[in-house]
Specification:
mainly beta, Immunoglobulin-like, ten-stranded antiparallel β-sheet, 1 helix, 49% strand, binds calcium ion
Length: 709
């Protein structure tokens, strides 16, 4: 049943002495009705309606009026003459001939104790203008307290949606007060309003403005769900007014955009963290390192988690899994939106915390955050340096260079080093292999520069047991693209002359600027040659787009060696190995292709052919080079010999060059069944090779060489 809602009616007719009980009540008690005729010429006001004795309740308001007449304007003074209620009676809303008397209760346990108490009130009517005379009239009444006005019970009904069944944009929402009650049978007055809101924002042409409420003073209050940016939880408030009571209750309306998903979606858990009083961050896959020099607290917040049902309806559960080797960590309040980790000083180890956010449909989403606890006071310190051939690396490094990574200066804070462990890891750039990656001193060979990124990066982490250092990082920039010709020659030879003609072709649509060509002799010294008729001192030169460069090297004395070409972009290079007669006519010419520096090459091998191999070592270290021959028919290895067994340390010294015939003396005897196979050339440092087929010692062809990775 719907109680009556009569809002604030309080009209008291003239000539009627009225007292309305409980201004919202339909009950009007008429106590008396006396009528006086005003004196036409008298100066004394005359009450046409007087106060009369009446009962009222604690926690209620009593409407009072007492009208007087006079030929002059009147003023009224209301007062409490005597009061048994110990000050609980009071006037309010005093306006001329009307006033309200209220009686508070002292406490809910004391409710009713004022029963029988009397309050005497008086109203005095006198001239509003003192010049009209001192005459006045008064009327008094005794109010007896009887009973208590109990607060109404505010209950909100209606279909307001649920977190998992939201009301979409365009629909109407009506909240009702049909289920309210009042212990005294009063019909309280209802006021409606919007309360707090969470989730998205309202979208109106004027901005984020809530929809209009219809029936904000009545038994039912409605609004139309307007467009919104994301699901909204909108509180609606009902206030019941009953005498001195204003009883409030709220209910949540669950709303969603028109095009929102129709089925309940799982929450998305998000962890925000703060270490000590540091900046707030959002958990990522990378563990967060916390220095445990002293005890510290990390705050974890889950209230940035989201859900289509609104994050206010999510529950949060935190769990943790740790691998603590020293100290301790404790997780507080595992079921609150915000929790914290209390980390004892000198704690070491790792901890992963999982947040599970659950919606009212029991769908869950999880997020994790990992911490690494490091006690820097005792952590070792990683120190890394790099060198090439004993020289610290100071600039870009050529491809194929062996770089030494040196972490042997790492130590504990007290400079001790015993039982430290080392780990070198590549952290960027083209992938390379690290030799001795778990030793203080490691090495790698720089890869060819193949565009982006033009660097390789490494880190060293040193551990003392489980306690790791911070990482020490090294970055190496790679030189321009470098390629090599492992056999060049220039100078007179009998009646002929060797010369080397180098052709470089830029097939790109961009100029290739700053090309460098260096020419080394067999012993690794710069070769003193004439190029295109002028002494060569190796200045960089440019090659225009779709253009080429031809360099002819000649020399006074016979010189053999190798060439190195560096360019910003890949050039096509061919070296013509020429013999020229007295008449400057080319007698023979063999094209030799370039190779990159590498540790392993493969080529064709024919036992009946006369084959020479030229090897240049552009690295800064001696090269131990082995030749192996695999029988193509049987797959068996028939040769495995060091190529430079006659050199110091059986290795080709740094920057030097040799050419050798692959004779039976060098290779040993083949099995009689062997005819053709694959020649593998392997080196411990990057080298560059050329395989030449000769007749009577004279080069007439080259063999295709493939670098093997
Ligand atoms: Ca009541
Ligand atoms: Ca949900």
């Amino acid at each position: 049943m719907m109680p009556p809602f009569i809002q604030g009616e309080r009209s008291t007719p003239d000539f009627c002495l009225g007292v309305t009980m409980n201004r919202n009540s339909t009950v009007i008690i008429i106590l008396s009705a006396a009528l006086w005729v005003a004196s036409a010429n008298g100066g004394t006001p005359v009450f046409t309606s007087r106060l009369g004795d009446v009962q009222m309740r604690e926690m209620d308001l009593l409407g009072l009026s007492a009208h007087a007449t006079d030929t002059h304007p009147l003023a009224y003074a209301w007062s409490i003459v005597s009061d048994d209620t110990n000050g609980q009676a009071f006037f309010e809303n005093v306006t001329g001939a009307s006033a309200e008397l209220g009686v508070r209760w002292i406490s809910s346990t004391a409710a009713g104790q004022l029963n029988g108490s009397k309050v005497t009130i008086r109203v005095v009517a006198r001239h509003a203008n003192p010049l009209d005379g001192p005459e006045e009239a008064e009327t008094t009444a005794t109010v007896t307290i009887q009973g208590v006005n109990h607060p109404p019970v505010a209950v909100i009904g209606g279909k307001l949606g649920t977190p998992t069944d939201r009301i979409p944009t365009g629909y109407g929402v009506c909240a009702d007060a049909y289920q309210i009650s009042d212990p005294d049978g009063d019909g309280p007055r209802a006021n409606w309003d919007f309360g707090k809101r969470s989730g998205g924002r309202w979208m109106t042409p004027m901005g984020d403005l809530a929809p209009a409420l219809f029936g904000s003073e009545g038994g039912r209050c409605c609004f139309t769900v307007i467009d919104m940016t994301a699901p909204i939880d909108q509180e609606i408030q009902l206030t019941l007014l009953d005498g001195l009571h204003a009883v409030k209750n709220t209910a949540m309306c669950y709303l969603k955009p028109a095009d929102a998903a129709t089925t309940n979606q799982a929450p998305k858990a998000v962890i925000q963290y703060m270490v000590g009083s540091g900046a707030q961050g959002v958990a990522s896959a990378t563990p967060i390192t916390i220095n445990t020099n002293s005890a510290i607290t990390a705050t974890l917040k889950g209230d940035a988690s989201t859900d289509d049902g609104g994050n206010a309806n999510l529950t949060h559960a935190w769990t943790s899994q740790d691998s603590i080797t020293a100290g301790s960590v404790s997780l507080a309040t595992p079921t609150a939106a915000t929790t914290s980790l209390d980390i004892a000083a000198h704690t070491r180890g790792t901890l992963t915390v999982t947040l599970t956010a659950k919606d009212q449909g029991n769908l869950t989403g999880t997020a994790t955050i990992s911490f690494k606890f490091a006690d820097s006071a005792g952590s070792p310190i990683a120190r890394a340096s790099a060198s090439v051939a004993g020289q610290l690396v100071a600039g870009p490094v050529d491809p194929g260079t062996v770089v030494t990574l040196d972490g042997s200066a790492s130590s504990r804070p007290d400079a001790s080093k015993t039982n430290l462990t080392y780990q070198w890891t590549q952290t960027g750039g083209p992938s390379v292999t690290i030799t001795n990656a778990d030793k203080p001193v490691a090495e790698f060979t720089t890869p060819a520069q193949s565009g982006s990124p033009a660097w390789v990066k490494f880190q060293l982490i040193v551990k003392d047991g489980a306690t790791a250092s911070d990482r020490a990082e090294l970055t190496f920039y790679l030189s321009h693209l470098t390629f090599y010709f492992s056999q060049v020659a220039a100078g007179p030879l009998g009646t002929s002359e060797f010369r080397t003609c180098l052709l470089l072709v830029n097939g790109t649509s961009e100029p290739v600027n700053g090309v460098e060509v260096e020419f080394f002799d067999q012993d690794g010294h710069p070769m003193d040659v004439t190029v295109n008729g002028s002494p060569w001192d190796g200045p960089p030169f440019d090659i225009a787009p779709l253009s080429s460069k031809r360099l002819v090297f000649t020399a006074q004395n016979l010189k053999l060696g190798w060439a190195k070409v560096k360019a910003q972009a890949r050039l096509t290079g061919l070296l013509l190995y020429q013999m020229v007669g007295d008449d400057q006519v080319v007698q023979s010419q063999v094209g030799l292709y370039s190779t990159e520096a590498a540790r392993k090459f493969a080529t064709f091998y024919d036992a009946d052919a006369e084959i020479a191999i030229a090897v240049a070592n552009p690295s800064g270290q001696p090269a131990s080079v082995r030749v192996r021959i695999i029988d193509n028919q049987t797959g068996a290895e028939v040769v495995s010999r060091l190529l430079f067994a006659d050199e110091t340390g059986s290795a080709l010294p740094a920057l030097q060059h040799r050419a050798k015939f692959l004779t039976p003396e060098l290779l040993g005897q083949f099995p009689s069944s062997f005819s053709v196979g694959t020649l593998l050339v392997e080196s411990d440092v990057p080298v560059t090779i050329t395989l030449m087929e000769t007749k009577g010692g004279v080069v007439f062809s080259t063999l295709p060489v493939r670098t093997v990775r």
